[in-house]
Amino acid sequence: AQSVTQLGSHVSVSEGALVLLRCNYSSSVPPYLFWYVQYPNQGLQLLLKYTSAATLVKGINGFEAEFKKSETSFHLTKPSAHMSDAAEYFCAVRGSSASKIIFGSGTRLSIRP
Amino acid sequence: EPEVTQTPSHQVTQMGQEVILRCVPISNHLYFYWYRQILGQKVEFLVSFYNNEISEKSEIFDDQFSVERPDGSNFTLKIRSTKLEDSAMYFCASTEGGNALNSPLHFGNGTRLTVT
């Protein structure tokens, strides 16, 4: 069975600082991994996806994530945080089934002025 | 850009009543999903639907729940007799067919269901 674990339910960084949101996955087959963002009172928006074509994946809004098989990780980073990045971020995994994706518990990102 | 639309945005109902949450997936998508998010908690999978039948469901999706694609555009979630613990945000999602494993899910903005 596939699952993802997000370390840290809440991360706070200063504006302009590096953002690092951690995600580790568990999968018995090569995983397909995603990061989604949820702004207050809105739906889930895709930030980026890993599909085995490249280990470093670039997404929208300056975010990127690196797939590390040896560490079973898919951490999300952004070099310089902006106030508008404040949101809930979810890591998700899909395994061999073409059906559902499974979400992590989410990390709330706060940005300090 | 095409998007998944959900109606209503907020539904208030009394315990024991039936509710139907409506979704219009992206038109060329073939896989449809319902997820829910209880306030402050994780996004949980409920059910997936493909080729006019349920392809997978979670333990949350008990006999009180049903899904239907009544026509070529709508996808509905029915809760037969609502309970207080059904209060949550319900998200509809869809994805295209073909190489579906790397196709992300596209989500609607959700319906907030409040059961009183």
Please tell me about this protein's structure.
The complex is a heterodimer of chains A (113) and B (116). Chain A is an all-beta fold and 113 residues long. Chain A has strands spanning 3-7, 10-14, 19-26, 32-38, 44-50, 56-58, 64-68, 73-78, 87-94, 102-103, 107-112. In chain A, the strands form two sheets. In chain A, strands 2, 4, 5, 9, 10 and 11 form a six-stranded mixed sheet that branches. Chain A has a five-stranded antiparallel sheet with strand order 1-3-8-7-6, with no helix packed on it. Chain A is globular, with a radius of gyration of 13 Å. In chain B, 0% of the residues lie in helices and 49% in strands. Chain B is built from no helices and eleven strands. Chain B has strands at 5-7, 10-13, 19-24, 31-37, 43-50, 53-57, 65-68, 75-79, 88-95, 106-107, 111-115. In chain B, strands 2, 4, 5, 6, 9, 10 and 11 form a seven-stranded mixed sheet that branches. The mean pLDDT of chain B is 92. The chains are: A mainly beta (113), B mainly beta (116). The interface between A and B is medium-sized, with 23 and 25 residues.
